[in-house]
Amino acid sequence: MSVTRVLFVCNSNAGCSPMAEALLRHLAGDRIEAGSAGLRPVDIKPAVLSALEKLGVSTQGLYSKGLEQVADRYFDLVISLGSRVHQAASAIPAARHITWNFDEPGDEDDARLTRTLHEIYERIKLLVLIQDRQQKSLW
Q1: What SMART domains does the record tag this protein with (predicted)?
Q2: pLDDT by residue (tens digit) across 81-130?
Q3: What is the mean pLDDT of the chain?
Q4: Cα–Cα dist 115/66, whole Å
């Protein structure tokens, strides 16, 4: 079976989408290729990288990217992390586009960052579980 390609898109590619990318890589290993991008990319927040590392999730190779850096690639699934980016994300070639809504973690709010990280983690675990049980692409 070929590797399923998933792209997470958020506004800045500084919080939610790199979290989702790192978590999917961590949980799915080489079964799913995960990426992320943003409409207006800025550096990934240090607190996001720290929170992922505290969970034992590798942040190696994780960096902020813009949509133009992935616009020429095809994905099996594009997940918009917020309704504000759905329209732009839907222009990325993919078999399926969906939207998940999460609070973007703030720079100073550790509780919000932790809550968002755990919400994304639970959603990714479910995605991987369903994918593995199906033993075929969901999309």
Answers
A1: LMWPc
A2: 988 899 999 999 999 999 999 877 766 668 888 899 999 999 999 988 88
A3: 89
A4: 25
Tokens of 90: 């839907």
> How many distinct structural domains can be found in the chain?
1
Evaluate whether residue 139 is within a structural domain: no
Write a three-state SS string for the chain.
CCCEEEEEEECCCCCHHHHHHHHHHHHHHHHEEEEEEECCCCCCCHHHHHHHHHCCCCCCCCCCCEHHHCCCCCEEEEEEECHHHHHHHCCCCEEEEEEECCCCCCCCCHHHHHHHHHHHHHHHHHHHHHHHHHCCCCC
Does the predicted TM-score (pTM) go above 0.85? yes
- Please report whether residue 74 resides in a domain: yes
CATH number for the domain that contains residue 72? 3.40.50.2300
